[in-house]
Amino acid sequence: xxxxxxxxxxxxxxxxxxxxxxxxxxxxxxxxxxxxxxxxxxxxxxxxxxxxxxxxxxxxxxxxxxxxxxxxxxxxxxxxxxxxxxxxxxxxxxxxxxxxxxxxxxxxxxxxxxxxxxxxxxxxxxxxxxxxxxxxxxxxxxxxxxxxxxxxxxxxxxxxxxxxxxxxxxxxxxxxxxxxxxxxxxxxxxxxxxxxxxxxxxxxxxxxxxxxxxxxxxxxxxxxxxxxxxxxxxxxxxxxxxxxxxxxxxxxxxxxx
Amino acid sequence: xxxxxxxxxxxxxxxxxxxxxxxxxxxxxxxxxxxxxxxxxxxxxxxxxxxxxxxxxxxxxxxxxxxxxxxxxxxxxxxxxxxxxxxxxxxxxxxxxxxxxxxxxxxxxxxxxxxxxxxxxxxxxxxxxxxxxxxxxxxxxxxxxxxxxxxxxxxxxxxxxxxxxxxxxxxxxxxxxxxxxxxxxxxxxxxxxxxxxxxxxxxxxxxxxxxxxxxxxxxxx
Lengths: 257, 221
Ligand code: HEM
Ligand code: FES
Prior knowledge:
The structure holds 2 protein chains of 2 kinds.
Chain A: E1 3-9, E2 18-24, H1 33-46, E3 69-70, E4 73-74, E5 96-100, E6 109-111, E7 114-115, H2 118-127, H3 147-157, H4 164-168, H5 175-186, H6 195-208, H7 219-223, H8 231-246
Parallel strand pairs in A: 1-5
Antiparallel strand pairs in A: 1-2, 3-4, 3-5, 6-7
Chain B: H1 5-11, H2 13-38, H3 45-58, H4 60-90, H5 106-109, H6 111-130, H7 143-150, H8 154-181, H9 196-216
């Protein structure tokens, strides 16, 4: 098959970018989207042109590197799918395809389609540690966890930090990401000791990184390749409100240190 | 310097949104009661004027408490809306050449412009029927007649109907969103689904609209 690409090309962080047209001929419908870009890049290299820079690592939908806006949708037209797991059979022969990097102030473009998602790392860092006993491994069933909590925690923990939620959100909000992280630890007994501190710190960091706020458009949930629900955002709000209400300064007057 | 509890809450995007949701809840409760009260218009002049007398004279202290509550709610709601909108704009300085909304509703995407319309509408409405300085023939205590005369100008009726259209959109998104914002919505397998919000978005603006419509169509005079 043959497709016409409009790809965002930008030489470096400060540089002005623009959409450049490329014709991709002789593409197999069984190629993944990234393999199609590989083929385009091979041909560009042979011609002596700069290949299109894009992020990728696992190519099996679990690392979250391969973010890009494809035809105006984060990770392209297929639900619950990363760009690396999208296949060219999702397109028709002769289709035009627009490819742009994630757009957010907090995700500066490094080159072409590659953005710096360090803001996500800093939100996770702000969340701090969980007080889990290490050393001798505990019996797996020692701490009972209601099935629904375990399910919700696991669903939230499926987040791969790809940034599609931010990219798809009209406000460039990182609420779904932050809420997923807050929910995944907050639903588990092991996450309780630092639960309130964590909610305050992660929301604070999310704001410092200049992400927008949540209007509950719902676009993030639709774009999320792992199907994380906006219910997590309700949980983030709950934890944040509760934490604001009951937060205390640290003190050790009781003498226990 | 580290800000103390409540100020920090207000500084945060989550805190501002919670304030929007909480004040929105107050405003939703108010528009439901206001609409229900207005329907007494169709019980005739005597009944409607008596209702107005009740609020304006007999229960005027309670009315003032309600007015102050609403004023505080509206000011907080608008301040938070404005500040969040500015932050949200700033969060994406360079926009996409192509972005296709997938699931966001028309109601959600027009919330801000609808808010601006309501912002113009509310002071006008107060000066029209409550204070009366923008009313052609305002007579204190004659609420029924004031409404009839007030809507004889078709353009004013249309301006009111426009406000109700935006109120419908605002309620369709807002009453669904506020339960999530306030963290009280139960987890759901289809969180985008809304029933209560749809019902309110139809019933409340429709109830309000009956007044201008009945006058404009000449059914009430
Ligand atoms: C006075 C003019 C008004 C303005 C400027 C305004 C503006 C807004 C804006 C911009 C939002 C969305 C904020 C965001 O998340 O980005 C919003 C949400 C909302 N508004 Fe209003 N609004 C107004 C009046 C009203 C009225 C009269 C009601 C009651 C019927 C109302 C109820 C709500 C509710 C319930 C929400 C949802 C809050 C949430 O998402 O949790 N608003 N408003
Ligand atoms: S490359 Fe790892 S998720 Fe796509």
